[in-house]
Amino acid sequence: MSCRTAVWLTHRNPYGRETGGAERAVRETCWGMVRGGWKVVVFTCGSQGEGGPIERSGLDLVTCSSWSGLHLSLPMFLREHADASIIIEDLAHVVPFGAEKFTKLPGVVAFRHLHRRTLPGQVSLPPRLLLSGLERAYPMIYKNWPIVAPSSSALSDLVTLGFPRERIHIIEYGVDTDLFNPGRLTPKPSLVHFAGLRPYKRPEHALVVLRILTALGQDVDLYLVGVGPSAASLARAAQKFGIADRVHFTGRLSDEQLARLVGSAWVHLQPAIAEGWGLTVDEAAAAGVPTVAYDVPGLRDAVIPGVTGQLVPDNRPDAMAEAVRRILADRSVWTDRCRRAVYTHSWKSVSAHWAEYLASLLDNK
Description:
Blueprint: E1 5-9, H1 21-35, E2 39-45, E3 59-64, H2 67-80, E4 86-90, E5 107-110, H3 125-136, H4 138-141, E6 147-149, H5 152-161, E7 168-170, E8 190-193, H6 204-215, E9 221-225, H7 231-241, E10 247-251, H8 255-264, E11 267-270, H9 279-286, E12 291-294, H10 299-302, E13 309-312, H11 317-329, H12 334-342, H13 347-363
Parallel strand pairs: 1-2, 1-4, 2-3, 4-5, 5-6, 6-7, 8-9, 8-11, 9-10, 11-12, 12-13
Helix pairs in contact: 1-13, 6-7, 6-11, 9-12
């Protein structure tokens, strides 16, 4: 059988500086497919070569300088790649490409989660209403292509939008168990938040948790990883709460630096409003670190209560602090159970699942 080619459309460069869980999923999945014999072309934003070479043995990175340029050049790009086998359109960032309208090639939509939950605090009301309207229009934009979702919560979101269940296929995220490993724990208990410093990630709840624990006499530090629009207000809040000496802003870290920091933490905090899956939960678990998260879409799929962490009621930092306190009192039992729970969740198996699913669509045309 000749080599099949997949074209992956995504707004944010998976090899760029501003990457999150969705971009890591694209990067790992594409490379796994390449290693499995596929050719993959990623069409995205960012300067050419950002974060990696343009061509790397089967993976081509084709970039535009802006989102608008990406959308405007999409029809021409698809014509130039009319010999591809299949298109994957990634909806990680709300705005649809609508590639189904511009090509006769078969395609798949990669859906993460409903952004209407996470838009408040990120954009003003007019664009928020527009983007929420775009999400509601997805069933009219994608009338034929099947949808791949990472979790049961994402599947429920799609059904709520009006997609029939039979068009939805679940492929969960993987985790790099070679990169994330248990390390030597910090001398005194430490908490880590590495989901990003953005309003919908609610990193300020991690500060409230630390404040509560400090008031209870717990000697605990907090590491806030990354950069983002919430950084300045978080620094002010730490000063206001009188816990600035316990809060460590790491800035952006390399993958290796992040893995070492997570592996040294006692507990991972995940107070986000919602996630598509909750990749940080699995990465923490691979490092032997339990997660305390809110019981919200995506995170309720990723956290296995009593195994990889604990779920608490949404918007309850006090409940989160109490769960942390219980874990700290019996921390040693969590390392092995966390690691065992995700050890088989490799990106290799995820990319193989993607390749198998795409091949099935092509074989059944």
